[in-house]
Write a structure and sequence with these properties.
flat, 7 strands, mainly beta, single chain, 1 helix, four-stranded antiparallel sheet
C-alpha cells in the first residue's frame, strides 16, 4: 500500500479585495461627503474626526419590494485613538475594521514566509 511521503502546505484562499484606509494621526479631519444614487436607492454620508471622535451622519432612502419608500437617518459618535486604522466601506463610509488588517505588502511577506 502507498504511504504519504510529503504533505503539501495549504491555506485558506486569501481575500484579494482591498479597502482604502488610513491611520488616524490625532488631527481633526474632514473625511467625506459622499452621495450615491442608484435605482430605488439613495445614500448620503458625511464624516469627520473632531477631538478624537469619529462623527458619522448618514441618510439612506430605498424602496421596499412592496414599493414603500423608507428613509433611515443616523448619527453616530465613536471615540478613537491616534494610530487607529479606518477603512472605507462603500455604503457605510469610514469604519473601524472588524478584523485584523494589514497592508498588501505585509500580506505578501506573510505568504512568502509560508513557502519556506
Amino acid at each position: 500500500m502507498k504511504e504519504i511521503e510529503k504533505l503539501n502546505k495549504y491555506v485558506i484562499v486569501p481575500n484579494v479585495g482591498f479597502y482604502g484606509g488610513f491611520q488616524y494621526d490625532g488631527e481633526d479631519i474632514h473625511l467625506c461627503d459622499d452621495h450615491d444614487t442608484d435605482e430605488g436607492y439613495d445614500f448620503k454620508v458625511t464624516q469627520k474626526i473632531q477631538g478624537d471622535v469619529l462623527i458619522t451622519d448618514m441618510e439612506r432612502t430605498y424602496l421596499r419590494k412592496n414599493g414603500k419608500k423608507v428613509t433611515e437617518k443616523s448619527h453616530q459618535e465613536v471615540e478613537i485613538e491616534k494610530g487607529q486604522l479606518l477603512v472605507y466601506v462603500e455604503g457605510m463610509g469610514y469604519t473601524i475594521p472588524e478584523y485584523r488588517m494589514c497592508t498588501v505588502e505585509e500580506a505578501i511577506g506573510q505568504y512568502e514566509l509560508l513557502k519556506g
